[in-house]
Amino acid sequence: MTPQWLRALWRSATGRFGIVVVLVIALTALISLFWTPFNPLSTDLTDRWATPSWPHLLGTDGTGRDILSLIMTGARTTAFVSVGAAIVATLVGVSLAALGALTARWMRETIAVLVDILIAFPVLIIAMMISSVWGGSLWVVIWAVGIGFGVNIARVTRPELRRVQQSDFVLAGRASGLTATQNLTRHLLPNVAPVFIVQLSWSMAVAVLAEAGLSYLGFGASVVEPSWGILLADLQRYISIHPLSVIWPGLAITLTVLGLNLLGDSLREATDPTLAHRAAEVHVPEVVA
């Protein structure tokens, strides 16, 4: 049977939009591994700046490369960065949240101060700091977004872990001989999973935007890697002459970030029972006869 939260997510218009966007990006990235209309790296100077028509459905750029093929391969980069950043954010967020909620008081206070310090640095600043040492690459974006949003996940998840830790079933598990790690994996993390999943979906949206922005600035993907940010940087120089070509990578970035953000909002509503009860409550004023 379909989980209740998934049915609630699909009933929401924003949830359906987010699911469709994620599926389209994932499917496009998968297809691009085996097929694209043209070789995205091949140039044809005789077919520069072709308007959208057959066989170039989205036109070509200044070197004759097919824009649709470039966007399809760029979806692969986007999927790689967003999933990689989500994995790093999971490791960082869970580790910091567990240390900040389940350890001795001095450790909890140390972690709280560390989280407050790290959360003050924007993701882009962290990425630029890392790239200044190791150079710009997709891994810089993944680690920067993963660390930056992992700190946010830890800050949101830590109080939830503290609250669930005082529940009767957790105390019963501890009394039955479960270790702290077993209690964490069996009881604590499953009960804070809704909050955690919502934060992950938002971190993936930030990763997409950060990859595009950093690649645009030269701190992200290298020029030989397909990237929507690099494509946007290449095409924006000709926006006054060929404005239509700039629309496609910008539209891909906008729809992807919008879909992931709306998916995160819908997940929060679908997995948080207090929001559902609050929305169902309708205040009916009394009628005075």
Write the layout of secondary structure elements.
Layout lengths: L3 H8 L1 H20 L34 H36 L2 H14 L4 H12 L3 H28 L2 H8 L4 H38 L10 H9 L6 H29 L1 H8 L9
Helix pairs in contact: 1-10, 2-3, 2-10, 3-4, 3-6, 3-8, 4-6, 5-6, 6-8, 7-8, 8-9, 8-10, 9-10
| Gyration radius over CA | 23 Å
Structural class: mainly alpha
What sequence of helices (H) and strands (E) makes up the elements? HHHHHHHHHHH
Mean pLDDT: 79
Low-pLDDT runs of 5+ residues are: 276-289
- Share of helix among residues? over 70%
Strand content: under 5%
Please tally the helical runs, counting DSSP H or I stretches of 4 or more residues. 11
Give the beta-strand count.
0
Distance between the termini: 49 Å
Shape: elongated
Task: Please outline the major beta sheet.
Answer: none
Structure described in brief:
The protein contains 11 helices and no strands. The protein has 289 residues and is mainly alpha-helical.
